[in-house]
Amino acid sequence: MTFLEVRDLEVEFRVDKKPVKPIEGISFELNEKEVLGIVGETGSGKSLTAHAILGLSTLVGGKIGGSVKFKERELLSISENEMQSVRGDQIAFIPQNPMTSLDPVYRVGDQIVEGLIQHAKVSKREAKPQVIKLMERLRIPKADRVFQQYPHQLSGGLKQRIVIAMGLCTNPQLLIADEPTTALDVTVQAQIMRLFSEMTRDRGIGLFLITHDLGVIAQVCDKVAVMYAGRMVEFGNIEPVFNTPSHPYTEALLDCIPYIGMKKGSLSAIDGNVPSAGNYPSGCRYHPRCQHSFSPCGTNVPALNQIEGGTRVACHLYQGKKD
Amino acid sequence: MPATYIRGKKTDNMENFIEVKNLSVSFDVRAGILLRTIGTIQAVNDVSFSIKKGEILGVVGESGCGKSTLARLILRLIEPKSGSVKFDGIDIFQLSKKELRQQRSRMAMVFQDPYSAMDPRYTIFRSLSEPFQIQNSRFKNEERRKKIDDLLKLVGLDPQHGFAYPHELSGGQKQRADIARVLTLTPPFIVLDEPTAALDVSVQAQIIKLLEDLREKLDLTFLFISHDLSLVSYFCDRVIVMYLGCVAEIISADLIGEHAQHPYTKALVESIFKTKPGQKNQAPPLEGEVPSPFNLPPGCVFVSRCKYAQPICREQPPVLEKSAEAGRVACHFPLS
Amino acid sequence: MAENQVIERKHKSPWLVVFKRFTGNKMGVIGTALILCLILVAIFAPMLEPYSYKEQNIELMNDPPSSSHLLGTDEFGRDLLSRVIRGARISFVVGVLSVMISVMIGIVIGSIAGFYGGVIDLVLTTFADLTWSMPAILIALLLVAVIGAGLESVVVAIGLSYWAQYARLVRGQILSLKSAVYIEATKSMGASDFVILFKHLLPNSMSPVIVAATIGVGNAIVLEATLGFLGMGAQPPTPSWGAMMSSGTAYLFISPWVIIFPGIAMMITVLGFNLFGDALIEIMDVKNKESN
């Protein structure tokens, strides 16, 4: 059974009375014990994708289209009430920026307990030892002491672990983490990413990781989806996509990243800027910046097709080479 | 001792353009109704280094290491507790307010947040004219307009962008405009404090290439501050690694990958997530987090997380000494 | 490596953006309309009033509204409509001038306190708090008692009563903007304190002050009416709305229109300013949210 199956997901907003689709045509699958990474730059729509899967975009006036099947159950057609029981219980969301997801006036332990008793049938007293055990497994030192503390007393790394604990306390089957390490030091980032890998393996959950950091994706994910200007341009297993990228954007993006030992002056850049929603170019949204663009690129939208090796690419260079 | 080279030029005999000696600054923490001092935070602790003309020196470290404070000290945007900074032979802490303002035209700073680096009520053109006004530049209006247009083109913007307001530009464009503003008075020395941290990686690459280009064209000297070790090792000639206000190591950029002497530098290198998919689930190189800088115990500041700590590390702080590879390291047991 | 994205559309100054949004806000439009009416009436008062505001006509005293005197007459037989129209001028002038005085004092004190901080800030803030906690009427009464009654005294008195809130607003803005990146950048270019304060900090602090000032005009008008009611303000025959209501109380059961119409005029005026100010608050809020 495919854990999470997303087909042609899109979100539509009305801006100044015109319809705008900041994401469209998003399709991918995720299995249990798998880590899927969604990577993209600003304006790629990766956060919005996560919010749409959780049905949160409707809260800000967006209309969600397409299909999101979680364990064969269509999430986009269930009511908000039913969705609320899924959210936080079977699908957990770890939002960006732990500094603002924790309420400053409550102790952190109590906040995790709150999350737990909303979905499980336990009392506060029964919940506490479970939460402390979870905190210990997340390598929070002196967990019973930390339980009593307030968010402002904790470091960034600890706050992030607390937020992760809030996500995991209900034993979800799918975990969606939005930029979980952006605000953290690089040495702490390594620790948090190891946690994620362990959790996925040991608990058999699926992890859906959203980030702009390609290094994190390369070292933690099994599959990757590359997004550009609201569309998915490449999707596949991490090794083929990162070692031999198919889509010109993926390739150009990987070439932009400096690494230790790189020859001075050899860094390449992508000319131009990411288009904003409402100002998308016609045809392939990347074509104005693409080195390889040719005649169909400006007029026809390339479909996401599977090519040799199992990767899916949305690019006219591969249109004749369908698998 | 092997000579040091910057892009093929031997630098041993060159004068130090910037010379920092024993620079320190600390902040007192007060509490209680009487606001008594209950402790200190040593933000920058006895830092010494020098920069040659035309060099790009990087400063790298995690939160609380003091790199941003160091940048502001070097430009005297904050006052130090002790130490000196000599800029082209002039001790900037000895200058009067007026003399300092005059020197400011020769050293400039590019800030981390392009989103708020310019007054939101000024057009780009007006923001760029301001340095001329402040320094009572002798350029007349026509000349000024032409110079600003040239600067905008130099950083890769269209002169039309001069009419825009900051909120109408993208992050990359804003950062270019900020760099243009810094260049108006042609300062030979520029401090860049995380200039690309808020930008997408493709935009970062554009800005770095621009900086490489400008350095070449205008013979600039850079102090480049960042938390991104890969970026710093690529862009800079030498790198200073800082931890909790102290210098852990000063090392040539091309040696960082394989020949780091300080355990912290090595941990930073190993913490980098490479974009080549590799072995997953490796143990993180460093556990724990940066401890609070408040009332630090004696001894080496890194001792709480160091794999190789010995009793002496807890008692005596290490001194910054010459290391095996023509750099400097502050460690009782350097890795070579 | 020129940027592809050249900005073609006309650049909207932040003020234009606010203006455009303002016209879409119903409250703001109504408020503006009311204020414009007030201004027009105030300017063209001599042409609008059917009779002279001071012309007395004893036979017609306390006449109810009629075709010749649309709002009736007061106890001296003066046409009420003319007096209410003339009163608009006084209210407007008093309102605007006194707020200008308050704002200027507030800016000076607030910016010094916010910019220099430390002991100076402490002293000035305490002073402002003391002024703030005293009822404005009390301050105004004291001042008028010292300076003497009359319209000029009223303007000065009101101006001196209400400055604390503007000082607070300016101080607050400067405190939060002091650490903004562009302020640090300007300092690193060698700008003097003066330049930083006057060219950057103050201009960026003005939005909440403008909003408070528009609502403040309403308050000032009410305070003027109160002072007028107490006999402290404009002296007869100057038709201050408050003074009119005051002298009208004696005739409350005989000719209530002498109180009602000036009261309505005042209500509409203050309402206009409040609606305008509220609309500004809403728009400023949206602008802040959008730029974030």
Structure overview:
The complex is a heterotrimer of chains A (323), B (336) and C (292). Chain A has 11 helices and 12 strands. By secondary structure, chain A is of the alpha/beta class. Chain A has an 8-stranded mixed beta sheet, with helices on both faces. Chain A has a 4-stranded antiparallel beta sheet with strand order 2-1-4-5. The two termini of chain A are 23 Å apart. In chain B, strands 8-9-10-5-11-12-14-13 form an 8-stranded mixed beta sheet, sandwiched between helices. In chain B, strands 4-3-6-7 form a 4-stranded antiparallel beta sheet. The longest helix of chain C has 37 residues. Chain C is elongated, with a radius of gyration of 23 Å. Chains in contact: A-B, A-C, B-C.
Short description:
The complex is a heterotrimer of chains A (323), B (336) and C (292). Chain A is α/β, with parallel strands linked by helices. In chain A, 32% of the residues lie in helices and 22% in strands.
Task: List the defining traits of the structure above.
heterotrimer; A: 323 residues; alpha/beta; 8-stranded mixed beta sheet; 4-stranded antiparallel beta sheet; 11 helices; 32% helix; globular; C: 292 residues; mainly alpha; 0% strand; elongated
The biggest sheet of chain B amounts to:
8 strands, mixed
Helix coverage percent of chain A = 25-40%
- Indicate the low-confidence ranges of chain A by residue numbers: none
Tally of helical runs of chain B: 10
Report the count of strand segments of chain A: 12
Rg result of chain B? 21 Å
What best-fitting shape of chain B do the alpha-carbon axes yield? globular
Tell me the span between the first and last alpha carbons of chain A.
23 Å
State which percent range the strand residues of chain A make up: 15-25%
Q: How would you state the average pLDDT of chain A, rounded?
A: 87
Q: What is the number of strand segments of chain B? A: 14
